[in-house]
Each structure stands twice: as C-alpha cells, then as structure tokens.
Amino acid sequence: MFSKNIQNLKTSPVRELMPYSKKAKEAGVGIIHLNIGQPDLETPKEFFQAIENFEEKTIAYSDSSGQKELIEAIKKYYKNMDINYKNDEILITAGGSEALLFTLMTLFNEGEEVLIPEPYYANYNSFFAMLGIKVVGIPTSFEKNFKLPSKDIIENLITEKTKAIMFSNPGNPTGAVYSREELTMLNEISKEKNLFMISDEVYREFIYDGKDTVSCGTFEDNLERIIIIDSISKRFSTCGARVGTILNKNKEFMGYILKLCQSRLAISTLDMIGAEALYRCLGSSYYDAVNKKYMERRDFLFEGLKKIDGVILNKPEGAFYCIVELPVNDAADFSKWLLGEFSYEGETVMLAPAKGFYQNEELGMNKVRISYALELDRLEKAIEIIELGLKKYKSR
Ligand SMILES: Cc1ncc(COP(=O)(O)O)c(C=O)c1O
User: Fold this and answer.
1) pTM value?
2) Cis before residue 139, ω within 30 degrees of 0?
3) Fewer Cβ atoms within 10 Å of its own Cβ: the N or the C terminal residue of the chain?
4) Given 3.40.50.1820, 3.40.640.10, 3.20.20.30, 3.90.79.10, which CATH number is that of 45-282?
C-alpha cells in the first residue's frame, strides 16, 4: 500500500534506544545526552532583536529563493573567505536538510550511485532511501582517523551509474577534517570523471588546532559541479530556526533547485530575518569564541575517555563529534544496558551506537558516536558514568 522507497527508510541509530531512554526517565533517572548534535550554546541576541524589530502587520510569504537581504549577507560572509558567489548562485532552504534533499532529488535517478566516505551522517540514509539512491561507501579506517584512501581506490569504486561524491567536512560522525590535499584529490576526481561533488560544510567554523583545510568553494575551476550545503543551525546555535543554503554555479542545476523552492512556496520569514542579522552582525570574533569553547570540551572529553581502560579514540579535529571504540563486542547492547540497567548518582548517559553510521555495520559494532556539545561538568559526569558502567557491564 505504501511506496517501496518509503518502506526502505532506515531508522536513525538512536531510534532503537528510545524505549530504553523512556524507561530510564520513568524510573526517575536523569539522562546525559551524548547522542545529540544540538549545540547547547545560547543563540546570539541579534537573532531575537531582529525579530522583535519586525514591523510588518502581516507575515507574508517571502521570495521562494530566500530573502534578498539574507542572500546579500551570505554572499558577503563567503566573500570574507575569498569565495565569490553571485545572488542567483545562492538559494535559501529550510535548513541544510532541505538543501540536501533538493540537491539529491535534482541529481539522481533511482538506482544511480553516490560515493561517500563511511561512516557518514546517518540522516543521509533517509534521503538515499526515499529517492532509491544506491550508496557506495568509500572505506576509511578508524585507526587512520578516517583519512581518505588513495585516488585509485576511490576511482575503482566509480561505475557508469555514479553521479556524485558526497561528504561532510568537518565530519559528522567522525570529527575528522579533510586536508587541503585530500579535498584537492576529490576535486580532481570530480573533474576527471565528471561527477558532482556535494560538500556539506555545515560545521565549517568548527576546526581545531589550525588544521589546514579549505571550503570546496575555493576550487574555482569546478564550481559548476561543486554543490555547497550550508546552514545556520550549528554555526550560530540555531537548530530550531530552519535556514540552510545551497551554493552552486551551474545555471541549469540552480534552475531546478529554484523550481523545487517555488513548489514549497517559501521558508519561514522570521527565521530568515533572524538569520540575516546573525550573518550581518557576527564575524570572526564570534566564531573564535565559540570555537574556543568547543575545543576546551573536545580536549576535556578526549583526555577523560583516553584514560579509561580499553577505550580508544582519535583526537577529533573538527565539528563536535567523535567515534569511540569501547571494550565491548556490541556497543548498541552496552548503550541499551546503560539506559535500562545502570545509573550513577541518579544519572546515566545516552550514546549513539556507531553501526548505524556505517554501510558495513560490522565496522561500527564496538563503537559509539559521542557528541560533546555539552558543558564541561556534564561531560565530566558522563565520562565517570561510562567508566563505571563499563566495569559493571563487563563483570555481569
Ligand atoms: C553533517 C550534517 N549535515 C546537515 C545537517 C542538517 O542540519 P540542518 O538541517 O539543521 O541545517 C546536519 C545536522 O546535524 C549534519 O550533521
């Protein structure tokens, strides 16, 4: 009765933990959420002020392509990075999620293939499944901190059905940041094999220790194939204001995206007004301050987890996630046990089992993804709970 594609939708990696977290809550146990990629920092006041200053008597539909002032502000934000897009090369979407969905809808016929380094952001799977896109995983290894394999390994995965290479940089769920050389290699493959390159850069500012990377918007020789996906969600701690962006210089591609934008009329006028103020008012000093906070949390988490017997992790280079190997056979089972059977001082933690981020689930069996978008005292308690939990779990 329902469509084949919709029935193929995978559940998110944390979905299977929901009944267990419900049980913990009902038992009065507090849950520290290490499973959610939602920044806890305050949304900058400029967002709310702009909305307070809104003087129209009616909230009308905005332009389908996005509000002009917002597009101007985003153009300037990119110009500050020496990346030049014109107004009609920028379209505003309901979050990065809609930008991704529209991009994939525009590029792919059912059965065509996307090349993607795994593990990757699990929500991509929903889009792939609903559009009947076949995923071909580019293998990366935990031991090498998810570095891309060599060019010939990637090229060997290309078939006549391959349409695009897609990735997020900095990476969710890996916290890895691709080097300039790795991205240049992907750009070469894209040009030589005539593949689109979907570069999801929603974590762009969250790069630590001065790691040398670039936005794919700097590859000026290939901007008709490069599609940049962007969003204010993480950049300005505004996940609930749904404002994303697609940037590309292929007129035909952008024409189709615009048609899709027109078909859903417009996105929230007020969200765009807030977003425009953020882009207009905030700059490097804001990003630096936020970055410092996340780096502090990353260091705290890394040092704390590293000390636990049998726990292995790489130092994340960006975003606010890391993949952590645990001394257990089945990290999903351990995660359920933590919620259902364990608490310390009235609290437990919720992890995201990593197998859901892999095509080849075996590779993620003994791993979890941890998000460190939390205050230090919360992280401290979470580390303690994981350590005590592991001891008890193993001695059952
Ligand atoms: C890699 C990546 N891309 C895109 C998104 C979509 O974010 P939004 O739709 O809130 O812009 C997320 C959200 O977590 C993400 O992690």
Assistant:
1) 0.96
2) no
3) N
4) 3.40.640.10
In the chain, beta strands by DSSP E: 30-33, 90-93, 113-118, 134-139, 162-168, 196-200, 226-231, 244-247, 312-313, 321-325, 347-350, 352-353, 367-371
For residue 244, the ligand 1 atom closest to its alpha carbon is: 11
3-state SS class at 238: coil
Residue-range domain boundaries for the chain: 4-42+285-394, 45-282
Give residues (CB < 6 A) around ligand 1: 37, 95-97, 121, 168, 172, 200, 202, 231, 233, 239, 244
CATH number of 4-42+285-394: 3.90.1150.10
**Structure-block tokens of residue 262:** 């027109």
